């Protein structure tokens, strides 16, 4: 047989075959011929097909994509699934594996047995957004053809004649998605480890058993309407199946850290300035059943003082307050005043409006970054409104940014101080470490311009030169090394491959060094 092909309907993969087929009186034999998937990955096929005058056919087909019995090849990856979403399907996606596939049976019943360890490129999706329909029979209208026995037709439709058993060893190469809402993108994207056993009987009853433990780097993309916020899944979170595919037990913890959040927003009358910029960890936990998870929230301020932690406890001890503050942190990245606080009025609505306006402004132009900034000083009863803009010229070497608006507005005077902040930066070198800066900024007390204690002007101007570099250790600190070269012998000059900012820089892999610069900031100098 030359350039033969076969499509396995249940997997959606078409395979190509090349090799000899032995023909005898009552049997066809295939002896370890090469089989290729749609991407050219190779496996081996052994089969025997028995018949009696081409009737009463039974067969035994073996795919080996694990190891070559002759010892010449070590098959590492083979496509075993390639399907798209269809209404009513339990899963879809693309899967690669290493293992064996056996198909045996007759005209009446087929047994399919799969033993696979997942490989890189595997992505399996479980669509849960139509799951309710699996449990209900809502077909109260039927369209029939005259002359067709509907009872027999229905019996044939629900009986496939195929038994499937699949044993999976799932590793970190495989991605699994649990899609709660396809329209909003509310889904879990996970990588992890586990051993799973799936069975599908001839009546399409599906069962799944096993435990899947989630690894670091997995995400829960929480979505509500147009709002989306990715959470990091806590490593060790897991899903357990005990038969019903859609009745898995969830034990998933997720978190996100909000940077530079002011705890003073909870109680503006507190004057502890250390509470003005804190890391706040928001926890979202999913427990109980897959289709009806119990969702709980929590908030922590791990680095706050005892005063700050006491404020957070006031939030977490009141369920309604916790829900309000949790979603305020997600939506507007700040706390709202606690219940009973004199400022616990309309600030949440104003913050949300500001966030929505900034989302709209951010989509208006690719060349200009636009934003709206609304601020209120409760102690001075002053308000400021600013419109920000940032753009770049001359191949991104000249950076211009500014904020224009009015500050120091009050309900009594009705007038304010104009804001006209402008900052201009020019990148001297290609890496952008050396820069010339010129600025005009509103003074901190500009909104207090009428105060008797105000002795400075409304604006501060300046010009200067700056140097900024990120490095992990002294060996990578370029300015230090170049300066040290002034005192070294020529043979000992420090050498480093120059690169453009944010580009990968290859180094000698034989020395066990990484092949690209890690962008994470460890140290910086300015």
**What is the mean pLDDT?**
75
Number of E-state strands = 28
Distance between the termini: 71 Å
Major beta-sheet overview: 20 strands, mixed
Tally of individual domains: 4
Any low-confidence stretches, pLDDT <50, length ≥5? 132-148, 150-156, 445-455, 497-526
Estimated helix fraction: 10-25%
Report strand %.
over 45%
Structural class: mainly beta
Give the CA-based shape. Answer: elongated
Radius of gyration, rounded?
Answer: 33 Å
Q: How many helices? A: 6
Describe this structure in words.
The chain has 526 residues and is mostly beta strands. The protein has four domains: 4-245, no CATH class; 248-363, no CATH class; 364-467; 471-525, no CATH class. 12% of the residues lie in helices and 46% in strands. The protein contains six helices and 28 strands. The protein has helices at 132-135, 150-158, 306-316, 319-332, 347-362, 478-485, and strands at 4-8, 13-17, 21-23, 27-36, 42-52, 55-65, 78-83, 92-106, 110-118, 123-127, 162-170, 175-181, 186-200, 206-214, 219-224, 227-233, 238-244, 249-261, 278-289, 293-300, 369-377, 382-393, 398-409, 417-427, 434-442, 459-467, 469-471, 523-525. The chain has a 20-stranded mixed β-sheet that branches. A six-stranded antiparallel β-sheet has the order 21-22-23-24-25-26. The longest helix has 16 residues, at 347-362. The chain starts with a strand and ends with a strand.
Summary of the model, kept short:
With 526 residues, this protein is mainly β. The protein folds into 4 domains: 4-245, no CATH class; 248-363, no CATH class; 364-467; 471-525, no CATH class.
């Amino acid at each position: 047989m030359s350039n033969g092909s076969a499509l396995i309907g249940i997997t959606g993969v078409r395979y190509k075959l090349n090799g000899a087929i032995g023909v005898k009186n009552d049997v066809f034999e295939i002896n370890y011929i090469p089989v290729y998937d749609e991407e050219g990955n190779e496996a081996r096929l052994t089969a025997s097909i028995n018949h009696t005058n081409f009737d009463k056919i039974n067969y035994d087909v073996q795919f080996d994509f694990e190891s070559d019995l002759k010892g010449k090849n070590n098959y590492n990856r083979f496509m075993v699934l390639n399907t798209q979403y269809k209404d009513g399907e339990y899963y879809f996606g693309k899967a690669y594996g290493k293992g064996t596939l056996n198909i045996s049976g007759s005209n009446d019943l087929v047994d399919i047995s799969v033993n696979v360890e997942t490989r890189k490129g595997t992505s399996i999706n479980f669509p849960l957004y139509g799951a309710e329909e699996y449990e209900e029979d809502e077909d109260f209208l039927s369209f029939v053809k005259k002359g067709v026995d509907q009872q027999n037709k229905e019996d044939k439709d629900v009986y496939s004649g195929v038994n499937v058993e699949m044993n999976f060893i799932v590793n970190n190469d495989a991605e699994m998605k649990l899609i709660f809402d396809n329209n909003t993108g509310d889904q879990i994207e996970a990588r992890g480890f586990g051993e799973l056993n799936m069975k599908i009987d001839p009546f399409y009853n599906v069962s799944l058993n096993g435990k899947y433990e989630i690894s670091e780097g997995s995400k829960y993309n929480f979505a509500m309407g147009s709002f989306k916020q990715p959470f990091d899944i806590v490593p060790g979170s897991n899903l357990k199946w005990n038969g019903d595919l859609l009745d898995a037990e969830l034990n998933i913890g997720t978190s996100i850290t909000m940077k530079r959040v002011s705890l003073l927003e909870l109680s503006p009358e507190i004057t502890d300035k250390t509470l003005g910029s804190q890391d706040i960890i928001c926890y979202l936990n999913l427990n109980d059943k897959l289709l009806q998870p119990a969702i709980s929230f929590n908030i922590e301020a791990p680095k706050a003082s005892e005063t700050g932690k006491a404020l957070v406890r006031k939030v977490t001890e009141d369920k309604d307050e916790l829900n309000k503050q949790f979603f305020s942190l997600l939506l507007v990245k700040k706390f709202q005043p606690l219940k009973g606080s004199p400022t616990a009025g309309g600030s949440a609505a104003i913050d949300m409006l500001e966030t929505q306006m900034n989302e709209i402004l951010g989509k208006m132009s690719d060349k200009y970054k636009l934003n709206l900034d609304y601020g209120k000083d409760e102690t001075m009863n002053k308000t400021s409104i600013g419109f920000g803009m940032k753009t770049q010229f001359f191949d991104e070497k000249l950076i211009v940014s500014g904020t224009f608006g009015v500050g120091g507005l009050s309900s009594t005077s009705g007038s304010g101080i104009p804001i006209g902040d402008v900052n201009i930066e020019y990148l001297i070198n290609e890496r952008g470490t050396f820069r010339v800066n010129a600025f005009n900024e509103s003074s901190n007390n500009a909104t207090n311009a009428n105060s008797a204690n105000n002795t400075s002007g409304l604006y501060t101007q300046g010009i200067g030169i700056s140097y900024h570099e990120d490095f992990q250790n002294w060996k990578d600190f370029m300015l230090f090394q170049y300066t040290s070269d002034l005192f070294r012998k020529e043979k000992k000059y420090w050498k480093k491959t120059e690169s453009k900012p944010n580009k990968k820089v290859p180094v000698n892999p034989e020395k066990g060094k990484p092949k690209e610069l890690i962008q994470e900031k460890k140290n910086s100098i300015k």
